[in-house]
Amino acid sequence: MAENPVYPSVFVVDGQAKNIPFVPPHRRNNRHRGTIHMLLGVLVMLALAGVAIEAFFLMKFRKELDSTTVTLLPGGPSSHWCVLGCKKRKIDPEKPAAHLRGANFTTPKNGPLLWEHIKGDAFINKMDYQDGALIIRKTGYYFVYSKVIVGEVSCNNDQSHFFKHSIIRRSEKYPVEIPLMVTRKFYCTGKAEQWLENSFLGGVFYLEEKDRIYVNVFEKHLVRMQDGTMSYFGAFML
User: Which of 134, 135, 150, 199 could form a disulfide with 128, with the two C-beta atoms 3.0–4.6 Å apart?
Assistant: First the structure.
């Protein structure tokens, strides 16, 4: 074997070709390998960067997921579900609130419904209760609500029957009752021999100190249930 490699002949077609440098084949192969190695290195770096970015977003998502985990707050009847990252809130004992249960339909015809305000889950905080009315101590916005179960055992379909459920406000500034919410409906209509239904009222109102709020029902004999889960009345400050 010859010590020096034999290269192919080079033919010059144009006189300017003499300016083109000649690169031996083994040097060209080394250059190609270097380019490939550089590209592979760039790809590896991009892949590692992608893994790092993905890990960062996974950690961020995990923190957000932990913060949005549904948590059941302790506190008995006042417990509530905290969802979508809301913070645990403690009940503010300074905010007035009351929940009365079990409507008493033996009240006078024109008087408000009477309620159980001590037993069971009934309670009064920073408010007063007197003769069926809640008395406001602190001026502010309140959510007021009431629900009653009403029914008729024996319907008389020959007459029109009208039922009204309302929450009333009495203020020292006004000499008359102020209806906050009212629902009206006919009952014992059609051919039904019996009738049973519930009536619910709820809304936000601005109440002032010494205001009285209470529940009135037209046709009180229709109030059938004294169960606190079916008939109740309450308010809480926002």
Answer: 135
